[in-house]
Amino acid sequence: MPRPFEPAVDCPTSLAEAYSLLEPSADGRVRPIAGGTDLMVQITGELGEPPERVVDLWRLDELRGIREDGDALVLGALTTYTELRRSPLIARHLPVLAEVAATIGAAQIQNRGTLGGNIANASPAGDTLPLLLAADAEIVLGGPRGERSVPASEFFPAYRRTARADDELVLRVRIPLRADRQVRFRKVGTRRAQAISKVVVALSWSTDGGVGSTASARSWTHVRLALGSVAPTPIRALKTEAALEGAIPTREVGDLAAATLEDEIQPIDDVRSTADYRRAVAGRVLHRLIRDEGEW
Ligand SMILES: Cc1cc2nc3c(=O)[nH]c(=O)nc-3n(C[C@H](O)[C@H](O)[C@H](O)COP(=O)(O)OP(=O)(O)OC[C@H]3O[C@@H](n4cnc5c(N)ncnc54)[C@H](O)[C@@H]3O)c2cc1C
């Protein structure tokens, strides 16, 4: 049975005030709350101890906004999925992120759920996380000791753990922009809306330029392949990346990459899917993505 929940709620209006309310080593007793779409589910006490106090981030304008900063796209932690879907900057520079946002929950969740919440919640099924890994994103944390940047690939050290200390906030995400980079994303769930992922795949690469050659005949460089829901954390599939690095997206390369990936990942059986299904689907999704680019 859900327990009655009446935590104290603080509503800071500046980052300094927010940091002072977040206690170091609070061990989950004091928690930030953004859209609340994860935290309010956990707050019943059915999924571990609920917090005693929550620090509401919604008034912190420093955590809002989507902007270009030199050769990077910067997304405030409070950016909602609806904002990602509607942003002209995202449409121009990283439309795949709007695609990801469109797969999350349904309209109510997209209006309220935030990118920072998805990151800090650190679910292995968090749908934005593989894309952040594949796009070489940096997570910017802020706290009483100042700001620091952590590569997304180092942000999730263990199941539902992050590099964030209790008294730090996710402030923003910085995604480097590369003119020649392609990024693709696929989510496999039970249905198209309101489904927790069984497998998420994000793939990015650059091409060697090959003037005059068609995209399907150019070799891939800077390959990144990241997956969700196949391990305790979102992961990069480094062996499969190595198999794709420098390759042209031919059928043989697709076959090899899919087989390498199926061998590389070690998913588990759980209520949403089986390990065998996840392994096979991850390989098939990657194969399809490569086939689409190789046009075979
Ligand atoms: C019906 C439903 C459907 C859903 N569908 C999906 C889905 O398809 N895909 C998916 O990935 N997720 C899904 N979710 C989960 C959730 O909506 C997302 O993870 C969302 O991005 C969480 O953001 P939030 O702002 O609501 O986070 P909150 O619930 O406010 O917080 C989540 C966690 O992050 C911490 N936190 C939040 N913001 C910060 C910050 N700036 N700095 C530090 N810590 C912070 C909180 O303390 C908490 O631990 C779904 C949830 C529901 C209820």
Can you offer a commentary on this structure?
This protein has helices spanning 15-21, 39-42, 81-86, 88-93, 95-102, 107-112, 115-121, 129-134, 152-155, 238-244, 251-264, 275-294, and strands at 8-10, 30-33, 53-56, 66-69, 72-76, 138-143, 146-151, 169-176, 181-188, 199-207, 220-228, 235-236. By secondary structure, the protein is an alpha+beta fold. The protein folds into three domains: 8-56, Uridine Diphospho-n-acetylenolpyruvylglucosamine Reductase, domain 2 (2-Layer Sandwich); 61-176, Uridine Diphospho-n-acetylenolpyruvylglucosamine Reductase, domain 3 (2-Layer Sandwich), CATH 3.30.465.10; 181-294, 2-Layer Sandwich (Enolase-like, domain 1), CATH 3.30.390. The strands form three sheets. A five-stranded antiparallel β-sheet has the order 4-5-8-6-7. β2 (30-33), α2 (39-42) and β3 (53-56) form a beta-alpha-beta unit. α10 runs antiparallel to α11 and α11 (251-264) runs antiparallel to α12. The longest helix has 20 residues, at 275-294. The radius of gyration is 20 Å and the shape is globular. It starts with 7 loop residues before the first strand and ends with a helix. Bound molecules: flavin-adenine dinucleotide. Flavin-adenine dinucleotide binds next to β2, α2, α6, α7 and β8. Flavin-adenine dinucleotide (FAD) is lined by residues 31-39, 41, 57, 63, 77, 104-105, 109, 112-114, 116-118, 120-121, 126-127, 164, 169-170, 194.
